[in-house]
UniProtKB/TrEMBL annotation:
Designated name of the protein: Acyltransferase
SUPFAM superfamilies named in the record: Trimeric LpxA-like enzymes
Chain coiled-coil ranges: none
Family designation: Belongs to the transferase hexapeptide repeat family.
Pfam families: Hexapep
Any one GO molecular-function label of the UniProt entry: acyltransferase activity
Swiss-Prot/TrEMBL keywords: Acyltransferase, Repeat, Transferase
Native organism: Streptomyces coeruleoprunus
Amino acid sequence: MPKNGNVFSSLTAWRRRVLTRAVHRGRRWVQETGAVTAERPGALRFRRLGAGTKLAFPQGTVFGEQWIELGECCIIAEQVTLSAGMLPGLDLGPDPVVTLGNGVVLGRGSHVVADAPVTIGADTFCGPYVYITSTNHSYDDPHEPIGRQWPRSAPVEIGPGCWLGTGAVILPGARLGRNVVVAAGAVVRGEVPDHAVVAGAPARVVRRWDPDQGWQPPLRTPAPVPIPDHVTSAQLAALAEWERQH
């Protein structure tokens, strides 16, 4: 016959498992219910909110959404800031200030802060905590606090197909071409050509694609092997499970 201590211990463990499952189910329900989509925009009134686009819950700071256009099938992770204008309630004119193309991904905790126009091309992926801004503080007057001096603004353009690594910073006036890779922690200003890799603070080009010679300097790792057409998703899942167990 089990001792009372074992009975109470088993009952406590059972209650904890039930409570844990309930908490996780509740959390998933809150996340799904609080997400913003074209069908369920909540209180946000974006200039455009494309089909298939989702802003995960909880959202970060969002204001000036009347001047923000989000294309189709974008993924905006938790705690992402999207702001148009210096303060909520400003009239920014007839044109969009922030424009995201189709399929843009903004990682958790990223910021897009725009007074001048910011355009992010289709299928650009951003890791977590990327900071993109078209406005920067000025410090011309040495006698005035920097925060009280009028900032400088310049448009930002990020071409399609780019990848911005974790913690990258894109400064006012930056213009990135197509399929640009920005290394984690890089600080980008000025123009970056198509098919380039930039790194550092300030960022500089460390690798470029040449149509005749390929990547220069050459890549140090072999190209990934594409998945054969006949392989199914179930087979890939089974392979992943096998690798996990072994």
